Amino acid sequence: MKPNARSYVAKPAQFPPAQRPWYIVDAAGKTLGRMSVKIANALRGKDRPTFTPHVDTGAFVIVVNAAKVKLTGKKMDRKIYHRHTGFVGGLRSATAREMIERKPEEVIREAVTGMLPKNKLNRAIIKKLKIYAGEAHPHEAQLPTPLEV
Fold first, then answer.
1. pLDDT tens-place string over residues 37-96
2. Fewer CB under 10 Å: which end of the chain, C or N?
């Protein structure tokens, strides 16, 4: 490597929230895992040349039609989501089918969260994910562009 070669390192001040791009994803008929990978990469900024692992350089992502997401094989009935209430004996479980009926947003949020790094940056990144069960969303003013999934 040349002694004069320099790597680009992004600074947090270079990426204020007002200048980040907004993407929209229609989850209707899309496979959960494949869609979640694209969303996680856009949230982290891995699809941009300014990507730096320790700085949040990613975009905002809006997901609509979360209730129409598709799972392959027999995952609808065999995939189980667990959560704990915090009390003794408070483990609660639900299948993917039950979760999509009750809270379709949480199915996508769990899948994307699992694909993000497990650190403090994770909490900042996941706040930029906006998920809605139906078509309507309150982010028309940000002029989101479609994210290719």
1. 999 999 999 999 889 999 999 999 999 999 999 999 999 999 999 999 999 999 999 999
2. N
> Among residues 36, 28, 39, 99, which one has the least CA distance to residue 64?
28
Q: Which has the closest alpha carbon to 105: 149, 148, 65?
A: 65
Classify residue 133: in a domain, yes or no.
yes
Domain that holds residue 57: 20-72+102-146
Query: d(Cα 63, Cα 59) in Å, to the nearest integer?
Result: 13
Amino acid at 11: K
127 in Cβ contact with 112 (< 8 Å): no
Q: How many CB atoms lie within 10 A of CB 88?
A: 6
Total-model pTM? 0.92
Element holding 39 (H helix, E strand)? helix 32-44
- Say if 81 falls within a structural domain: no
Q: What is the CATH number of the domain that holds 116?
A: 3.90.1180.10
Residue 85 belongs to a domain = no
Question: Total domain count for the chain?
Answer: 1
**DSSP H/E element including 98:** helix 96-102
